[in-house]
Amino acid sequence: MNNVKPTLKPQSPFFSSGPCAKPKGWSWARLEGALLGRSHRSTEALARLQETLRLTKEVLAIPEDYRVLFVAGSATGAVECALWSFLGTKPATALAWDVFGARWQWVLENALKIKDQVMVGGPTASFPDLSMVNFDHDVLFTWNGSTAGMCVPGGDWIPEHRKGLTICDATSAAFAMPLDWEKLDVTAFPWQKGLGAEANQGVLVLSPRAVAHLSAYPAQWPIPYMFSLRAEDGRFNEELCAGVTLNTPSLLCLEDYRQGLLWAKELGGLEGLVGRTTANNKILEDWLETQDWIAFAHKEPEIRSTTTVCLVLTNLHHENKWEPLKEMAALLAHEEVGFDLLGHGAGTPCLRVWCGPTVEAEDISRLCAWLLWAYQQLEA
């Protein structure tokens, strides 16, 4: 092997899978319009929240009759809100192939204690047979399992006509992968991740079926105020779609998210975002074909993530699979060419590269050379 240290470094060495890299050219000047020191209930702040909701819907090409709202607690808060608000009237099936899918399984089993539940998979499970899912149940799943590098192969496996609701954690898919909205009833994701904004509020996208469900069925258990989506009359609280929030959002973080949405519009919206993600992933894919020491954690391209790309070492046979990965990640961080490249500690032992739309293709290309160099240091 040619053990020569690369000379070109990524201009932005931020490959964390969350919080994710800021778009190229980002600076604090973008946030000068933030309504700092103002009430989120003020006319100006409410208008800013309404604009940001509208931009979210526009950039993600969300159907007109779907509702979009902000909730506390980033993606975790949004998913928890969905579970507490929508489950309990039907049996539930929870699918998991990564750490976060398994976390939601835990909520169903131990917090909500749903009587009729089916748990499929776990934190490091293989990908399930989606044809076996019973959609008479409410079905919970992550679109992209970020700690495993596996995602669902689109939405064709979900029937158009179904009795249960589909509840989707789209945290590391939104703004980077096309989402089949007609197949999704409740979708949750954060301000951060895809657009590189700061974590603060989560986003819920509700189909007409989901809204009708809230209005037709009373809460199945006491609902914490922070998760309360119903008005006093028991029906869906439409004010939440008009910029009203159940707690105080950071108006600084709101501005950062809004600026990310405006940047996305300049790229051509969702098509541009997905195109950048696909191009980034293709650079890694082409490079891996030339290497015999590293590979995708999963061979099947139809279920392989294009955002949270998980890579495994194929030639090292350490008893502790994490040890060489930790050494490589530490070396790359020390050289300031790649930060936060180590996979999730509770997931599959791997290096993990965020290839979302805020990452520049040239930086991915330069990182590849440094990955090889770091591996060579282990072998030296």
Which properties best describe this structure?
380 residues, alpha/beta, Aspartate Aminotransferase, domain 2, Aspartate Aminotransferase, domain 1, 3-stranded antiparallel beta sheet, 8 helices
Helix/strand layout:
Layout: H1 43-59, E1 67-72, H2 74-86, E2 92-96, H3 99-112, E3 117-121, E4 138-142, E5 144-145, E6 150-151, E7 166-169, E8 186-190, E9 201-206, H4 208-216, H5 251-266, H6 270-288, E10 294-296, E11 308-313, H7 322-334, E12 351-354, H8 361-379
Parallel strand pairs: 2-3, 2-4, 4-7, 7-8
Antiparallel strand pairs: 1-9, 5-6, 8-9, 10-11, 11-12
Helix pairs in contact: 1-5, 2-3, 6-8, 7-8
Quick overview:
It is built from eight helices and twelve strands.
CA-based gyration radius: 21 Å
Q: Between the first and last Cα atoms, what is the distance in angstroms?
A: 10 Å
| SS-based class | alpha/beta
> What is the CATH top level name of the largest domain?
Alpha Beta
- Low-confidence parts: none
Largest sheet: 7 strands, mixed
Total strand segments: 12
Strand order, sheet with most strands = 1-9-8-7-4-2-3
CATH topology grouping of the largest domain: Aspartate Aminotransferase, domain 2
Shape: globular
What portion of residues is helical?
25-40%
Number of helices: 8
